[in-house]
Amino acid sequence: MLIAEPLFPNIIGIWTIIIAPIDVVPAVFIPIVVIIVVIVVIVMIVVVVIIVIAVVVMIVVIVAVVIATAVIIVVVVVVVVVVVVVTITIVIVVLVCT
Q1: C-alpha to C-alpha distances, 89 to 37, 63, 81, 85, 95, nearest whole angstrom
Q2: How many domains does the chain fold into?
């Protein structure tokens, strides 16, 4: 009891210091906390949207590069075929005429 009596008021004092503000804090800070949480959620959503847009843009760029490469390959093949056909035709015409 000699040890408990001096500690008891101290514990009550600490209890009052810790608990009393907790009753007041939510009333004051809940709107601030809600605003901060909403801002954080909005920022996270914006970041996710930006990441999704970036991924879509990357996919579009990759598809465009693949299509451009395919078109270039087709054009080169067509040009080579035309040049070969024209060359063979010219050679045949020259051989036949002479």
Answers
A1: 77, 38, 12, 6, 10
A2: 1
